[in-house]
Amino acid sequence: MLRYAFRRLISFALALVVASLVVFFSLEVVPGDPAAYMMGLNARPEAVEALRAELGLDRAPAQRYVAWIGGMLQGDFGTSYTYRAPVAGMIADRLWVSLPLALYALALSTLIAFPVGIWAAARRGSAADMAVIGTTQLGIAVPNFWFAMILVAVFAINLGWFSAGGFPGWENGFWGGLKALTLPAIALALPQASILARVMRSALIDTLGEDFVRTARAKGLSPGQALRRHALRNALIPVLTIIGLQFSFLLAGAIIIENVFYLPGLGRLVFQAIQQRDLIVVEGVVMLLVFAVITVTFLVDLAYAAVDPRLRRG
Q: Which spans are transmembrane here (predicted)?
């Protein structure tokens, strides 16, 4: 297991290096000058050059890349061109909204999908199974921002149970913050739960047809016992893949939902930074999201090895 984890850790480090190169140099070739944008159309050339020197934009790209990587390794993501504030602090403030939102949505998605997928697989071909397939197909087809608007119309405007948007801050109470994230989390979770439930159902149906499950049934286990004791664990590998991908998507791809509910998360931060050509903020946020995606992938690989010993031996 340790050798397997070490090999995956080396792949993890190499992927981070390649991702950092792609992120930095992709943004470097984006047309436009942040200093000229900040100074405005009527700025004098010498004033723009002075600002470029102050921001470090006059150095060679390779020098700036090395300085950027060295700073991130020490927890310094640089200083925002627009707000003149440390990028690490700005990201940390927004992360306390985006990370709980992603975890909340992932928990809801898993709690919905697991029992629904298992229930449908155990009743394959029945009317209940067909109803689950139809409902999950609808959940996949409908965009999550449409779910968000429906939730706001029903539960915020008509019933008044939740606020229509905004975030009070965790310092004003845990339950108040959790309540503010509930509708956005449901809007994010419903499409992901539909995907996960279908994967859970398909994986279980495939596993229930294996010889070892039939052998367990021949030894006297009931269908439910064979499913819980033998089929479920062996069906978890594709499910773990989807859960890992979903967390990465929920953390990195919630920009639309954050804008619908006016949440001060990473999505809105990177959207505003792109508008203002604040490239150092964009680079910092994107690299953080890349790190989160690769870390989740690494943890999913370790979960694979825990579920399937053949991977450890391989």
A: 101-122, 143-162, 174-191, 235-257, 285-307
Is residue 64 situated within a structural domain?
Answer: no
Q: Domain for residue 230, yes or no?
A: yes
Of 75, 70, 38, nearest to 57 by C-alpha is 38
Tokens 């029945």, located at residue: 126
**Full residue range of the structural domain in which residue 221 is found:** 87-313
Average pLDDT across each block of 10 residues of the chain; the chain has 314 residues. List them in order: 73 84 73 62 69 70 80 80 82 86 89 85 79 83 81 84 80 82 88 86 75 66 65 72 77 76 83 78 83 80 66 56
Report the CATH number at residue 118: 1.10.3720.10
Comparing C-alpha atoms, which of 38, 19, 30 is closest to residue 79?
38
pTM of the model: 0.75
Residue 180 belongs to some domain of the structure? yes
Torsion sign (Cα): 215, 216, 222, 226: negative
